[in-house]
Amino acid sequence: MQRSNERFVERLPLVLPRPVYGYALSLLLCLLAWLARVAAETLLPVGYPFVTFFPAVILSSFLFGVRPGIFAAIIGGLLSWYCFIPPFYALAFNPGVAMALIFYTMVVAVDILLIHFMQRANFNLAVERERSRALAENRELLFRELQHRVSNNLQVVAAMLSLQRRQIDNDVARRALDDAAARLALIGKISRALYDPSGQGQELRAFMVMLCADIVDASGRTDIDCTICAPDGLSLEPDVIVPLALIVAESVSNAIEHGLPDRAGRVAVTLEQQADGALHLRIVDDGRGLPDGTMPDGPTSIGLRIAVALAQQLGGRFRLEPAPDGGAMACLDLPQQTR
Prior knowledge:
Blueprint: H1 2-10, H2 19-39, H3 53-64, H4 66-84, H5 95-164, H6 171-194, E1 202-203, H7 204-219, E2 224-229, E3 235-236, H8 238-259, E4 265-273, E5 279-285, H9 302-313, E6 317-322, E7 328-334
Parallel strand pairs: 2-4
Antiparallel strand pairs: 1-3, 4-5, 5-7, 6-7
Helix pairs in contact: 2-3, 2-4, 3-4, 3-5, 4-5, 5-6, 6-8, 7-8, 8-9
């Protein structure tokens, strides 16, 4: 309702098809004011000849502009002088009449000027609002274009790494390039999905469902059941959720590749938020468990070292440990990060 009123006020004074309509309607308002003054003749004491004409002048100026307002002020003044200032119906002029007309002129002039400056200020405000809207649209367009180009560049780098691996015979080096290309492609995809020019956080549960589904699809496995458990409505800042998403991607990929390499299985991703805002992430698989020699606080693979570094970047802690019911469990503890 308030916004509707703002839009109506921004259109004032009304632009009628022909200017004469504004004068005609102003004349009608003056006639209505005259009828109201005649009807109130017995109720008003002597000395209020202009009282019903002030609203007519204000409405004419407010609705139709300065010139119809001046027109209404002149008509209202003449009708008051002729009908309600003694001697009646004579347009007599004397010092008392002069003072009354001067007073009326001053009041209506102030009314018209105030309305005029108010509408000019309102018009300028509407122009600035429209300019701000256009700037916001341009900002959003440029931001999306920037994000698109950044994501495309990451995809290009990933493709270049994939091409480079064809010239390498060493299996370890080829595997490293494959992993790097996959991580770059994932970062590009996450950036495109998450970043918003408005600065709003991403709803985490829906994003994690999409992310884990993409990871399982990328693995080429159809026998992996990946479930997500996270609070509804939980959102994080983009600079937090990107490292968090990479940790989830590394942990789920590690569970599929090393925990469930040759059989069907289940990966459960659980995110809990504590009363103080801290986050606890658990990624549990029912696979073969941790290999001998792998310590909970000392992951040896590059992917798990990346997860540890990202957790430290967020001020948290990442660890890999045996799951209570068999398999492996990746744990991430973060301090308060929500908006």
